[in-house]
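Journal club prep, notes for RB
We'll compare a predicted complex against what the paper describes. Inputs for the iron/sulfur cluster case:
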Amino acid sequence: MEVVRAESAGFCFGVEKAMEKAYRQIEKKAKDGDKIYTFGPLIHNEEVVKELKQKGVEVIDSVEELKEIKEGSVIIRSHGVSREIYHILEERGVECIDATCPFVKRIHKIVEKESEQGKKIIIIGNDGHPEVEGIKDWCHSPAIVIESKEDALNFTFEEGEKLCIVSQTTFNYNKFQELVEIFKKRGYDISVVNTICNATEERQTAARELAAKADVMIVIGGINSSNTRKLYEICKSECEDTHFIQTLDDLNLDLPKSVRLVGITAGASTPNNIIEEVQNYVRINF
Ligand code: SF4
């Protein structure tokens, strides 16, 4: 039996950078004793958040809590935030360690510019996701979030209205194209910017290709991680026997002798050591 890890599984560029910034700040803090916070969990991985907490990094969960901060530094995670958050940090005189991924920053700039020019912004993504919430706030007029075929079909617009479509960075590429097609067929005046980041596209393609060959697939990632959930959907559509786990403890495998290939992939917030642990476990035990 072969155990194969998908290419581009695990930490993406943006998450890696955010982790580096957090650890650099921890080292700095050790010298001057300042407090460190993250606005929301730095990444969707409980193990990593626990480790950071042990090193003194506290998670702030709401804007109200943020407004209470009087000192130290706040790390903005790779998802990015609304403009309001930057204003609050400035007002409070708190240091801002901005770990917003450059791919997300690019979307902020696009929607800011396009909405300023009068275009209605359509975000293809999951409403309520922190990245999408942040993007919405960079628009000069209310943006619309489209999540499904139904949303796209039900969308109505005013005569002559110009639209600009962007995507949440972690959206499923094929689904994005399918939704964009609906808008195109309806003859809207649209400009489409595919803002799905390469890391996501590459990870999804690699997962799909591996799942198509595998008898069993294991997808590792946080339960709240939207990119991991999407990886799971993709793998499940190619390989019926797909398992979604957070850590090795969740793995409940019973592999029949006929299994020849077990594929492993992981979301953007899954540290390498967790992937390796699962990989080694399957290799040794089956
Ligand atoms: Fe950046 Fe892409 Fe990673 Fe999101 S998934 S943090 S956009 S590299």
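Talking point for the session: The domain at 2-11+199-285 is CATH 3.40.1010.20 (Cobalt-precorrin-4 Transmethylase; domain 1).
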